[in-house]
Each structure stands twice: as structure tokens, then as C-alpha cells.
Design goal:
Low-confidence stretches: none
Helix content: under 10%
Number of helices: 0
Shape: globular
Number of strands: 11
Strand content: over 45%
């Protein structure tokens, strides 16, 4: 079992930055692929970024490439999402998720942290 708690959301102006954190508890954090998802009001949840178990491989969805960076610190059981050049369309509830390396579907989810970008 993995428990995930997100933090770092808030209200920011267009062009601003935020760093989200996701603290994981449970064993073998380093064995999990970690991801960030978001869900805007009235829309389906969408994938944002993921990082491999060792942190050497990352993948971002096209809409955030060049602006968002995912990273992890396995010693601290924490994954981060650095968000720069924020736009109003980035406004959403952001979720942290985890899956075992051998599994394709994310298995564990946090409660989410709200990010609101004002124009």
C-alpha cells in the first residue's frame, strides 16, 4: 500500500510558478512509477507527467512541455511538479498517483491539491 499526500497548490497569476509536492508513505517508494494528473471543472482527468522509479526518465504531456518539470527524491519519498509560465487553462485539481513498474494502470491516488491561475 502507498499513501499519497499532495501540497503546494494555490492561487497564482498568469506567468507565475508553483511547485507541487507529493509525499508518499508505505514501503518501496522507489519501486513505483510516479505521475501527476489534473482535472479541470467539467472535464475528464488528464495525464500531466510521469517519472520513472529511478528518476532518470520523465514524460510530459504536450500542453505542459517546456513549462512543467517532474522530479523525485527517493530518499525523501517525495515527487515534485515544478510548474512555470502558468496559464489560466492550467487551473485544475492536481493529483499525484503511483503504480508499480510492471503495471500499466495507476493504482494509488492522492486527494489532490487545487491550482488556480488568474488572468
Amino acid at each position: 500500500q502507498v499513501q499519497l499526500v499532495e501540497s503546494g497548490g494555490g492561487l497564482v497569476q498568469t506567468g507565475g510558478s508553483l511547485r507541487l509536492s507529493c509525499a508518499a508513505s508505505g514501503r518501496s517508494f522507489s519501486n513505483y512509477v510516479m505521475g501527476w494528473f489534473r482535472q479541470a471543472p467539467g472535464k475528464e482527468r488528464e495525464f500531466v507527467a510521469q517519472v520513472s522509479w529511478a528518476g532518470g526518465s520523465t514524460y510530459n504531456t504536450d500542453s505542459v512541455k517546456g513549462r512543467f518539470t517532474i522530479s523525485r527524491d527517493n530518499a525523501k519519498n517525495t515527487v515534485y511538479l515544478q510548474m512555470n509560465s502558468l496559464k489560466p487553462e492550467d487551473t485544475a485539481l492536481y493529483y499525484c498517483a503511483a503504480r508499480r513498474v510492471a503495471v500499466t494502470k495507476y493504482e494509488y491516488w492522492g486527494q489532490g491539491t487545487q491550482v488556480t491561475v488568474s488572468s
